[in-house]
Amino acid sequence: MNEKQNGFFANLAEKLNLRYIGSLVLSVLLAFLICAVILAVAGYDPIATYGAMWNGAFDSLRHVGDFLEYAMVLCICGLACVLGARVGIFNVGGEGQLLLGAIFACQIGIWLQGTTAWIVIPLAAVGAMVAGGLYAFIPGWLKVKQKVDEVITTIMMNSIAAFLCQYLAKGPWKNANKNMVAATARLNADYWFGNLIPRSNLTTAIIAAAIIAFAVWYVMQKTATGYEMRITGSNPRFAFFSGLKTDKIVILGMVVSGMMCGLVGMFRVYGVEHLYRASISNDYYFEGLTVAMIAQYNPVTTIYLSLFFAVLKIGAQGIELIGVPSQIYLIMQTVIIFFMAAEKGISESIQKSLQARRAKQAAIARMKGGVSHE
Amino acid sequence: MGEIAVQFKHISMEFPGVLANDDITLDIRKGEVFALVGENGAGKSTLMNILYGINTPTNGEVFIRGKKVEHFDPGVAISLGVGMVHQHFMLVPSFTVAQNIVLSREPKKMGVFFDNKGAEKETEKLVKTYGLTVEPSAVVQEISVGLQQRVEILKTLYRGADILILDEPTAVLTPQETDELFAVIRKIVREHGMTVIIITHKLYEVMQISDRVGVMRKGKLVGVENTSDMDERKLASLMVGRPVLYENLDKEDDIGDEQIRVDDLVVGDNRGLVAVDGVSLSVRSGEILGIAAVEGNGQSELLEAITGMRKIESGSVTIRGRQINGMDPGAIRGIGLAHIPEDRISTGVCADASVSDNLLMGKERNPEFNTLGIAQNNAAIRKYASEIYEKFDIRGAGIDVNVGSMSGGNMQKVVVAREFSFDAPVLIISQPTRGVDVGAIEFIHEQIIQQRNEGAAILLSSADLDEVFRLSDRIITLYEGKVTGEFKASEITKEEIGYFMTGKRETEAAHE
């Protein structure tokens, strides 16, 4: 009976992970507090700034649309990172995979100009996934077969991808307009994703993104494949010993991660920019990766936190209107990461002192009452 | 005699959810060999870690030679004369014996430079004083495990220890090395008035070496006795809390077809050196072939090669008539092989996953656990895991906790439970009961014999010779990767086999 109850509460606590939520909320509050101090020192009114931030995100439907679109980007990038982490590979190369996905998706639309959107859009999506997936396959294969550290390869491959795209956008695939220095041609408006909120960045892409997010969550949490990925990520030797094809699982995890990043690139092009240029992504993958890390690679938490950070980021544009630099958003993000990283150490020390106190009380009680332990 | 070396007063130690030490009061006398025994998780190591300053007790006091310990820290403990030799040696393999011994208190030239000559001289002096023979200039990774242990002991003596804690010192030793160790212990106690506390699982060793014995069970000290008043059976019962039956594993003699065949196998180790050097063997269904060898003589690599965990350089391995060279562990398991690996933490379990996830491994694609191939059937998985949990008598906080939080014995039961639940006709078993307590050993042994009686072909390797003898039908000895002898278990003694394990020949053996 007792054991059953314990099991139930343990389950509930695990599901809610109260400790995590508590420390996250605390970190966020502390981040707001510290940023308020910084703002005050720098001569800005913190309350007015936070007010402007709120307005920046929520004062118009357009801004709501913008933050939803950015949340979508963060979420898919974050989930791509989570997926890699699940199989034990740290995909830092999402930025490059995203750029390649974007430029290939865009160019497919240009090449197929005149063909119906029903053909162009799926082909562009496939193209983006192939580009991103192949680009992720290389570091995945190198890690598994040659034991090359994926963090180093993916970071370096980001630069290669960025330069390659720059070359394509300035050279063979350049926009005919002389004023556009590094951009591809503009997509035919027939191929653009439909706007869900007028004049905002929010398009029908978010529906596809929602489906992807659900599929990733479902596979990771509910299927035998997800189970095998989890075991492989947390103890590859055990997984191999138990008969799993760990090499295949790791490479597959990496490739799917790259495919997702490639798709984000396509969403950016077909949804917002309608052509490829470097500003298609402003280190968006790295922001998604940050979100995934803060979420401790939990897919559901990643989804929620993407929304939160998107609100902050879009809101931060609002504070520029009252003359406060929007970089305050970066400080806030950094402080939150800092506290979340320190969370383990802090909560452990609190737990330890609580424990010591409890043990002491128990000992005193035992001495007083002579209560037997058995 | 009569003087008190260490005094524990009402020591309690609480870890999250566990009371590892529960109100322990114990005096250890100067100049005695005190054995501390108990099942895994009974709290022996915790108590010794408190004495050595690694753990700070949540309650209670420790006195060393009448002086209260105010601050728990290994540095302080060392300065108070406490030395500890851990189960896993803390030596720098590429350093010489002398360099290891003086580490942290190096003799210096001109106050700055390391004085190698001085270190060797110091070591020489220690060796003479205590009669523990080792070569000061030998490199640690090149000397035997028994000698390495001696270096560990010398290290503590160099630091001025007169209270010596030995944590399962014989786990890695051959019978001969064990005898030598015991001679050393007796000598330093008798001639130098040292106090020795020895943690062990092996009850006959308690009888052999100790003056007094303390038995711990579930964090409590349940008895302190003069060893002369005890016997192994009484000790085992005290440890487990119920009578333990130790003999009569019911072996049936029904040996069938050849299931494992190894021909002229050569396998490398992690450094690329030859670890298994032309081994051939054969195991038939219904029999257990035991491998007796001192650790590091190729047995680990041999078993890893057979199970696909390690590359075969040359020769062949045939499981149930199929040659498995070049196959991965998954494919070999498909032929009908299960494997209890040597190192449960790195290989045998996924420590960060739940007990249920660990028990499921290998069966996750079975239709009953994988509805229509698209969703895990959690209800069925939990039911299955609970059944196995009960059947294998795993004792922990249920199937939802992480395996990493369990005691070594229960973790091992998780491994045994999973691997045996495949009902595989071929079993490769390595160190089935390392670090496992008496009660669980008994259980695991019964399970192994049951598998054998049901017709499994079993290849067993264990550092515990008693275990090899108890379970095996035939025994082979390995030395430096070569088979040095093959025997019927009933026709040879432990002492005799010890000589083959060290590569000696029968003629040499006769002289000693």
CATH topology of the domain at 61-315 in chain A: ABC transporter involved in vitamin B12 uptake, BtuC
The profile of the biggest β sheet of chain A is:
none
Helix content of chain A: over 70%
Under the CATH scheme, the architecture of the domain at 61-315 in chain A is: Orthogonal Bundle
Query: Sheet bearing the most strands of chain B, described?
Result: 6 strands, mixed
Main features:
heterodimer; A: 374 residues; mainly alpha; ABC transporter involved in vitamin B12 uptake, BtuC; 14 helices; disordered C terminus; B: 512 residues; alpha/beta; Rossmann fold; 2 domains; six-stranded mixed sheet; 24 strands; 27% strand
Please explain how this structure is put together.
Chain A has 374 residues and is mainly alpha-helical. Chain A has a domain at 61-315: ABC transporter involved in vitamin B12 uptake, BtuC (Orthogonal Bundle). Chain A is 76% helix and 0% strand. Chain A has 14 helices and no strands. In chain A, helix 5 packs parallel to helix 7 (150-170) and helix 12 crosses helix 13. The longest helix of chain A has 42 residues, at 328-369. Chain A is globular. Chain B has 512 residues and is an alpha/beta fold. Chain B folds into two domains: 4-240, Rossmann fold (3-Layer(aba) Sandwich); 258-342 and 420-433 and 455-511, P-loop containing nucleotide triphosphate hydrolases (Rossmann fold). Chain B is built from 18 helices and 24 strands. In chain B, the strands form six sheets. Chain B has a six-stranded mixed sheet with strand order 6-9-10-3-11-12, with helices on both faces. In chain B, a hairpin with a 2-residue loop joins strand 1 and strand 2 (18-29). In chain B, helix 14 runs parallel beside helix 15 (438-453). The longest helix of chain B has 18 residues, at 175-192. Chain B is globular, with a radius of gyration of 24 Å. At the A-B interface, helix 1, helix 9, helix 10 and helix 14 of A face strand 1, strand 2, helix 10, helix 11 and strand 20 of B.
